[in-house]
Specification:
alpha+beta; outer membrane lipoprotein receptor (LolB), chain A
């Protein structure tokens, strides 16, 4: 059960409202992820703020949280929630570590949980714009808008992945700006990123991923 809770928490990190797409947008049917790769940038460090809205089946009101993130390419993601409660999640390929306001620390090693390892890999691929990783796991439909804008719909290829998520919709330009995904349970998570910057990691931030 503990691994399952961390697994769902990891999915929630990458989830965001979908905007109305212009009618004149161009739909790409041939090698869509290759075109997306040309539009996305790949900075070594990407940081910003997020607002996450999670809608649960059986609950009338969605759960809304806000905070800041730091994505370090090749290292992981530091996810610090400020509202409604302070907490921190550090996601790397090998582990998920959660820290609460009281100093509590809980770590799950993904080597011991193959399903969790798969989710971690996809989470990092989504934030970092890792096109090859996405192409291996999802069928993709890309819609382009102008020189930089895009919207990407992803459907899982594998039944094992479909047990966790049925659809992911991403939207952005040189960075992923919005994500919306629907879990197999029917729960939906939306997340919007803002105030992006490319400031390098400080020594203290580098230690987050050690």
């Amino acid at each position: 059960m503990k691994a399952r809770r961390h697994l769902l928490c990891a999915w929630a990190l990458i989830t965001a409202s979908a905007a109305t797409w212009p009618l004149h947008a161009q739909t790409v049917s041939t090698d869509p992820l290759a075109e997306l790769g040309r539009r996305l940038t790949a900075p070594p460090v990407l940081r910003g703020e997020f607002e996450q809205t999670k809608t649960l089946k059986g609950f009338k009101r969605p759960l809304v949280s806000r905070g800041a993130f730091v994505m370090a390419r090749g290292r992981g993601v530091h996810w610090a929630t400020r509202e409604p409660f302070a907490s921190t999640i550090v996601v790397t390929r090998d582990r998920i570590r959660t820290l609460d306001a009281s100093g509590g620390n809980n770590t799950v090693e993904t080597r011991q949980e193959p399903g969790l390892r798969m989710v971690n890999d996809l989470l990092l691929a989504l934030l970092a714009g890792d096109i090859k990783a996405l192409a291996s796991r999802f069928q993709a439909e890309l819609v382009l808008d102008g020189a930089r804008g895009w919207r990407l719909n992803l459907l899982p290829r594998e039944a094992s992945l479909g047990r966790f998520v049925t659809r992911i919709e991403l939207q952005g330009d040189e960075h992923v700006r919005q994500v919306r995904w629907t879990e197999a349970s029917g729960d939906e998570t939306r997340l919007q990123f803002s105030k992006h910057s490319l400031t390098p990691l400080s020594p203290a931030e580098t230690a987050w991923f050690d």
